[in-house]
Write a structure and sequence with these properties.
- The chain is 25% helix and 26% strand.
- With 362 residues, the chain is an alpha+beta fold.
- It has two domains: 3-174, D-amino Acid Aminotransferase, Chain A, domain 1 (2-Layer Sandwich), CATH 3.30.470.10; 182-329, Alpha-Beta Barrel (D-amino Acid Aminotransferase, Chain A, domain 2).
- Strands 1, 2, 3, 4, 5, 6, 7, 8, 9 and 19 form a ten-stranded mixed β-sheet that branches. It has a five-stranded mixed β-sheet with strand order 14-13-12-15-16.
- Bound molecules: 2-OXO-4-methylpentanoic acid (COI).
- 2-OXO-4-methylpentanoic acid binds next to loops.
């Protein structure tokens, strides 16, 4: 896909800008993930079987009929992306084609209409150009991008809606997890089942984790590593992150399937590991193998990967009555891989896989 040409296709778009920007009032040193939004948002409605002319308007509340299916049946899908600013004030996206394709896969799985490329890329380009002053330079700073589609047709029959709203909102971000992350390994609850919607970025997948995760919080664990729903024997993903285990010097991550999100950071880390001669195995890992490795000292690291979280080290885990703290090591793969990934994202290193996409000034 030639992103540069897609982004320059003219799109008929009405733009209404804010009278005065909120930017001067933002405290970038104290950002809580996902709580601060930029001045503008992109909206495109799907009505009578067609995507309508899109609009950019000031960020603000929506008026949606209470009977809209999104409120009753959760017909909603989303994406998570980031924009980065380099030292020369150029703005970069990382593998945005992956997010576009996954959004449409998720939409299809939830019987929602797919989005045309020009709406997605032109909308994103134009919005980022309007709000690019919100992107701070330097590693660790980014603008989190949240594209989403919701069913907003007013009718509560349990069937796919006829009308939808696609939107993009932007939120300046630093880290997703502010403290240490320890995880519980799921033994009772599950996130996804075979044939279900686990691989889609469906809103309900996240809501379904809130209750079990709140129980984990009470025990002092910030996240859950989900296991397969049938046997709870195989390690799958962490819900907000895909998960990697380092046993001796081999990195292991579960293969994607219809229960596991095909994470963009996950697939990039697999490639970066290969490029750097790190032994990487994409295979199922049993909880019992993890516990054996923890007991015999060969388990060196666990980390999660995701757009919001980037690469987040896991400091310890619990399964049944077994508790384990990861050792402190000097040659962390998580640190090395994060550094290489960030250097590509912030235009500080060669981009041999052509993952970076420049948001051209308009
Ligand atoms: C992301 O990493 O972008 C996600 O969508 C996870 C979300 C829970 C913040």
């Amino acid at each position: 896909m030639h992103l540069e040409s897609i982004a320059t296709i003219p799109l008929s778009m009405k733009i209404t800008t804010v009278e005065s920007s909120k930017l001067p009032s933002i405290d970038f040193d104290n950002l809580n993930f996902g709580t601060v939004f930029t001045d503008h948002m992109f909206v495109c409605n799907f009505i009578n079987g067609e995507w309508q002319d899109p609009e950019i308007i000031p960020y603000g509340p929506l008026t949606i009929d209470p009977s809209a299916r999104v409120f009753h049946y959760g017909q909603a899908v989303f994406e998570g992306m980031k924009a980065f600013k380099d030292e020369n004030n150029k703005v970069w996206l990382f593998r945005p084609d992956e997010n576009f394709n996954r959004l449409n896969k998720s939409a299809s799985r939830l019987a929602m209409p797919e989005l045309p490329e020009d709406v997605f890329f032109n909308g994103l380009n134009t919005l980022l150009n309007l709000d690019k002053e919100w992107i701070e330079k330097g590693k660790g700073n980014s603008l989190y991008i949240r594209p989403f589609i919701i069913a907003d047709e007013p009718a509560i029959s349990a069937s796919p809606a006829a009308n939808y709203k696609f939107m993009i909102i932007l939120s300046p971000a630093r880290s997703y997890y502010s403290g240490e992350v320890r995880v519980l390994i799921a033994e009772k609850y599950s996130r996804a089942s075979s044939g279900g919607v686990g691989s889609a970025k469906a809103a309900g997948n996240y809501a379904a984790q809130f209750y079990p995760t709140s129980l984990a919080h009470k025990e002092g664990y910030q996240q859950i590593i989900w296991t397969d729903a049938n046997t709870h024997e195989y390690l799958e993903e962490a819900g907000t992150m895909n998960i990697f285990f380092r046993i001796n010097d081999t990195l292991i991550t579960a293969p994607t399937n219809d229960r596991i999100l095909d994470g963009v950071t996950r697939k990039s880390i697999i490639q970066i590991a290969k490029d750097n001669d790190i032994d990487i195995q994409v295979r199922s890992l049993k909880v019992s193998e993890l516990i054996d490795a923890a007991k015999n000292g060969s388990l060196k690291e666990i980390f999660g990967t995701g757009t919001a979280a980037v690469i987040n080290p896991i400091l310890g885990f619990k399964h049944s009555s077994f508790k384990h703290e990861l050792p402190k090591i000097n040659d962390s793969y998580a640190t090395l891989l994060k550094e290489i990934l960030n250097n590509i994202q912030y235009n500080l290193a060669e981009d041999k896989h052509e993952w970076r996409y420049e948001v051209k000034s308009m």
